[in-house]
Amino acid sequence: MNEIWVLVTGSLVGITCGLTGVFLILRKMAMIADAISHTVLFGIVMAFIVTQTLNGVWMMIGAGIAGILTAYLVQVLQSNGLQEDASIGVVFTTLFAAGVLLITLFAGNVHLDVEHVLMGEIAFVPWNTWTFVGITMPKAVWMLLFVLLLNILFLVVFYKELKISTFDPVFAMSLGLPLVFLHYAFMTLVSFTTVAAFDSVGAVLVVAMLIVPASTGYLLSKSIKVMLISSMAVGIMSAIGGYYFAKLFDTSIAGMMATTAGLIFMLVFLFRPYEGLLVKKRKLTNIHEIVVK
Amino acid sequence: MLSGNLLWVLVGASLLGIASGLNGAFAFLQKQSLVGDAAAHSALPGIAIAFLIFQQKDLPLLMLGAIITATLSVYLIQGIINRSKLKSDAAIGIVLSVFFGIGIVLLTIVNQSSSGNQSGLNDFIFGKAATMARSDLVWLSGSVTLIITTCLVFYKEWKLMIFDATFAKGIGLPVERLRLLLTAMTVLTIVTGIQAVGVILMSAMLIIPAATARMWSDKLNIMIIMSALFGAFSGACGTLISSLKTGLSTGPIIVLTASSLFLVSYFFSPKQGLLVKIRQRRQLEKQALEQEVQGS
């Protein structure tokens, strides 16, 4: 039974991150997601210091604020002339350092140790349950389901707007779409996704689940719908594959999930349908045959 | 007050600050700041592999492993960008997170093996500046000297490469090899610093002093010197502050010192500072208004 819950949690992480990741890749914001996954730590620690509890709701609020703050600060530095990569670098390393310092100062002996935050421990997920409307499920599953629902809701409501503003921001602006609102709403969702996943796979490896499956989907597809589906599929495959690999080698499950995602990406990169090595080789031989004839 | 150990840490942190400040300035201008971040994360699996192969915690051996995987990561990022439609941000993100994942997998295996229990490899993630000893300093100062010398020797070539790569190629400079050398130096800086400030905060030392220096000067030579000075100051100041009270870990304090410098520069620097820019904008508005009044 426990194994099933771990697999369910992993797959939910794969689906949620896969969904959010697609728009991160398309909007060229992969590194902002990396930054947010680091600064979420700061938000969680602040939430703990203010409320003195490890309540999921407060953590979510703290992380949401930290995520928006990150996106906002990066934007401010950039609009004042600092190049993008440096803006991201300055903001996230600073907030991360502040987070680590605050943990060692104020929260050293609670469950909030830095390593747990960074690497997560999905194996402990089944023991921390929560009952709601008569159903008892692990807390992490509840949280992931909630965030997944939020993500789907956001996508269903703003799908068209998100698509236009991603592919043609100028056109979107001329239509009068609320670009700023969309940007920050999306950043908030990314932070929520990070927090929900952080308990199981850890803040740093969330980045792997956000970026790698979506990039794989990007290589595999030419339309956004196919990309969404393949991204989620790769996310689930990485989660389940990672779990069994980790069991086989008796090592970190979260680390193995990221490794598996990387493995799948590598295979797709080499053998992808449109421009992979195999296709290029076949094209070459085709040309060769034509020339010979 | 300056006990022996603190002195070593102080010297080490300042040296490291100089090296990362120098190198970070070049990486910053090449828009490679986040590549450094990825390389820092990618050093982790190398350290773990080196430990698994040699079964000992000899610093040079671990560093060799770190150098190999960090260099590999930079290559892979370039490869992904060149051979697919993925952009640089996605490529950096993929390599960074997957290498870090592999690193954690290997680290867990190391920690479970009998000899790895006391290996202290976990220190590489967050750094242990406070335990820097005299023996570490020999290694540190050696590589820092190498980094500084290389920066001085290749200053002119790198300058040309950064600001006009086409012209540099035109007059016959081996631009690709120069770029490789810069990457190699960045990797060396990262690998040197990892032990002190850790994988994650190492990238801060590469990025923040350079970004701070950029606020103060438009000239490359001045920017580089300032970047090195800011790095050294953050290292020394951070070490001193963290020695005031137990619980103030050195790595984060060093980074926060660097960030405070950045923040001050961001607002008050005479050229790029926010205050100056606001004043300029006000003056422009005033002028425009006066002209409008005169015109009507």
What does this structure look like?
The complex is a heterodimer of chains A (293) and B (296). With 293 residues, chain A is mainly alpha-helical. Helix content of chain A is 81%, strand content 3%. Chain A is built from twelve helices and two strands. Chain A has helices at 2-26, 30-51, 56-79, 84-106, 114-119, 139-167, 169-174, 179-201, 203-220, 224-249, 253-271, 277-292, and strands spanning 129-132, 135-138. Chain A has a two-stranded antiparallel ribbon. In chain A, a hairpin with a 2-residue loop joins strand 1 and strand 2 (135-138). Chain A starts with a helix and ends with a helix. The mean pLDDT of chain A is 83. Chain B has one domain (4-295): Orthogonal Bundle (ABC transporter involved in vitamin B12 uptake, BtuC), CATH 1.10.3470.10. Chain B is 83% helix and 0% strand. The mean pLDDT of chain B is 83. Chain B has 296 residues and is mainly alpha-helical. The longest helix of chain B is centred in the middle third of the chain and has 42 residues, at 175-216. Chain B has helices at 4-29, 33-54, 59-83, 88-112, 123-126, 134-153, 155-163, 165-170, 175-216, 220-244, 250-268, 274-295. The interface between A and B is large, with 58 and 58 residues. Chain B: InterPro entries: ABC_BtuC-like, ABC_TroCD. Chain B: Keywords: Cell membrane, Membrane, Transmembrane, Transmembrane helix, Transport. Chain B: It is found in: Cell membrane. Chain B: It is a multi-pass membrane protein. Chain B: Its main location: membrane.
Shape-level CATH architecture of chain A: Orthogonal Bundle
Uncertain regions spanning at least 5 consecutive residues of chain B:
none
CATH class of chain B: Mainly Alpha
Name the CATH superfamily assignment of chain A: ABC transporter involved in vitamin B12 uptake, BtuC
Q: Whole-Å distance between the termini of chain A? A: 63 Å
Rg value of chain B: 21 Å
Q: CATH class of chain A, please?
A: Mainly Alpha
In the CATH scheme, what's the topology name of chain A? ABC transporter involved in vitamin B12 uptake, BtuC
The fourth-level CATH homologous superfamily of chain B is ABC transporter involved in vitamin B12 uptake, BtuC
Which structural class fits the helix and strand makeup of chain B? mainly alpha
CATH fold node name of chain B? ABC transporter involved in vitamin B12 uptake, BtuC
The dominant shape of chain A is: globular
What percent strand of chain A?
A: under 5%
Fraction of residues in β-strands of chain B: under 5%
Biggest sheet strand order of chain A reads 1-2
Q: Count all strands of chain B and give the number.
A: 0
Mean pLDDT of chain A: 83
Multimeric state of these chains?
heterodimer
Main location (chain B): membrane
Pfam families (chain B): ABC-3
Subcellular location (chain B): Cell membrane
InterPro entries (chain B): ABC_BtuC-like, ABC_TroCD
